[in-house]
Write a structure and sequence with these properties.
The structure is a homodimer of 335-residue chains. Chain A has twelve helices and 14 strands. The first copy, chain A, is α/β, with parallel strands linked by helices. Chain A has a single domain, classed as UDP-N-acetylmuramoyl-L-alanine:D-glutamate ligase, CATH 3.40.1190.20. In chain A, helix 3 packs across helix 10, helix 10 packs antiparallel against helix 11 and helix 11 packs across helix 12. At the A-B interface, strand 2, strand 4 and helix 4 of A face strand 2, strand 4 and helix 4 of B. Strand 4 of chain A pairs antiparallel with strand 4 of chain B.
């Protein structure tokens, strides 16, 4: 790995889908009747998005997108961040751009004129807080590789990428270009596997990236670990994957999370919450807390604990962007 | 008053601004520095809306509009409702239309093509839950009188109107036409005064409507009562206004509410809440509960209690549309 040329200005630069979440409570029977996989993410076209929206209950809109949520958490904790993602020149695009900038995150990707509109994710939230997502990618899938400012990527300590964005072709090329820029500058690349179905489609790509050392910090939940490694046994999956990355972080919902790094291992229990309202963004905010700790040079155990604190905040309300003062919360819980 | 020609099909038909609320927490110092009157509603133009949105924190969007919120509450309680209001043919217009229809409310006003866009209300929410609103009326101010279906208005037991909509000229004409249709069919007209500044601009109109018997049920808060009557003394204000309407309902925030009808009087205390998160919609949902009780032929005391229960639900979360199951809540609290 080449040495960093100079100290980076940004803590984290992220590339991800630029999405507005549209959320409504739903009964599990409705989710099943609509043919959705409870807890999963499906890509939907215009027609299906229209059908699902028509049967959805009264909803609320909050900016989302996996990497964008993580950056919102990082910025709220005090990190200096930038985001790259594609919105359309429309009202939902303005909402997304407003919310990310209002969170203190630099966001300069120009809005894309014309069709398709800004991406949205129709989220059916079950009574137990489980979220089932239907993503209409819209403009987000047209993030062009030339939207990347390679100098800026080289100027961030960590490049953060979401697996979801591997589906569409143009952003995939953009992410490969970003990885090259980050690695060329001696920066760290953090990657989240995002979803089991994404791994079904792109697992070979992900494994190749991991084998070649393109990924320093890998985030997965236990289902994604199994899907990527082909190991149904949790420990066997960890044993296969951990040696290939500098840090492997695996979340296990209410059973907490584990991190492995160069032979060391740390655990955290899930942070208790009064009531799980909406699990959307739990993984994204866990990543935010972990990466913030990491950017501050903290121990694996500290990073995990901060991840758990941030995840607990996000699942206690609707929406995947933090509502509480995360900085104060972190100080209270971690001192 | 002429007799009703036949039993109405609808419980309530409402005419109001078709608005999407854009809400973010704010410090009182910021609200003051921006020149807003804490707790009030100001109309803003495109330029001012842009400036305010630029300095607003990360926000969330929930459909709003005073009368529309009231109908959402009424429908959630089990009333059969219809709404008339003007959205533009844009994404926020789709959001508004979706949310009101998904709440089970008939909404057929065609979207208006071209500029201006759908109305939005930029709401700065103080740490104590007080809301300060900046309304960009957009398409909402162009509700044409010919958008009204007079037969449908005549087919609703109650016509519900918001004072906010008195500002723009076209909807004012539409509301006058609607009142004539309702009174001609022997229906009740319910009116909410909405805001002190609206009364400053249109108090003479409101007083004239009340004097001529166009208003059967009048909703006000204590500031609005004082503004309309010119009486700073609460009891003097009640004494002046109550004889002119069949029912006068005056809300007093945390001090509860009072209703007066044909010489009778009833009170309710504010329903206790764990934490006041956002007072947006408190008056709207109070009106929903009261009107639902009234539509069921309940006593003044029952109507007030149901109003207080609905208001307590709405101020315990962000947004002015109910999140809890109001029907179950009403059954629990009123039996």
């Amino acid at each position: 790995m080449p040495q960093s040329r100079s100290a980076p200005t940004l803590d984290v630069i992220g590339i991800g889908n630029a999405i507005v979440d549209v959320m409504a409570p739903a009964a599990d029977e409705q989710i099943e009747a609509l043919g959705m996989a409870r807890g999963g993410m499906m890509l939907v076209d215009t027609q299906r998005a229209r059908e699902l929206y028509d049967v959805m209950g009264p909803a609320r809109e909050v900016s989302g997108g996996s990497a964008a949520n993580t950056l919102a958490g990082l910025a709220a904790l005090g990190a200096n961040c930038a985001f790259i993602g594609q919105v359309a020149e429309d009202q939902l695009g303005e909402v997304f751009a407003h919310d990310i900038r209002a969170g203190g995150i630099a966001f300069d990707t120009p809005a894309r004129p014309g069709e398709p509109p800004t991406a949205r994710c129709l989220i059916f939230v079950s009574p137990d807080g489980q979220r089932t997502m239907n993503t209409y990618l819209g403009a987000s899938q047209y993030l062009p590789a030339d939207a990347l400012d390679e100098a800026r990527i080289a100027d961030a300590a960590i490049l953060y990428l979401e697996g979801y964005l591997w589906d569409p072709e143009e952003p995939r090329a953009a992410m490969r270009k970003a990885i090259a820029a980050a690695k060329g500058a001696g920066r760290e690349v953090a990657f989240t596997l995002s979803d089991g179905f994404v791994i079904e489609r792109h697992g070979a790509d992900f494994n190749a990236m991991i084998e070649t050392g393109d990924v320093d910090i890998l985030f997965a939940n236990e289902n994604e670990l199994a899907a990527l490694t082909g190991e149904s046994d949790f420990e066997a999956g960890l044993a296969q994957l951990a040696p290939k990355v500098a840090i492997l972080v695996v979340t296990r919902s209410e059973r907490g999370a584990v991190a492995l790094s160069r032979g060391k291992r740390a655990y955290v229990l899930a942070e208790p919450v009064n009531a799980v309202v909406d699990t959307t963004g739990a993984g994204d905010l866990f990543a935010a807390g972990f990466l913030f700790g990491h950017s501050q040079g903290k121990s694996l155990a500290h990073c995990l604990k901060l991840g758990a604190v941030c995840a607990a905040e996000i699942i206690s309300h609707y929406g995947a962007r933090p509502e509480a003062n995360l900085k104060a919360l972190a100080a209270e819980k971690l001192g």
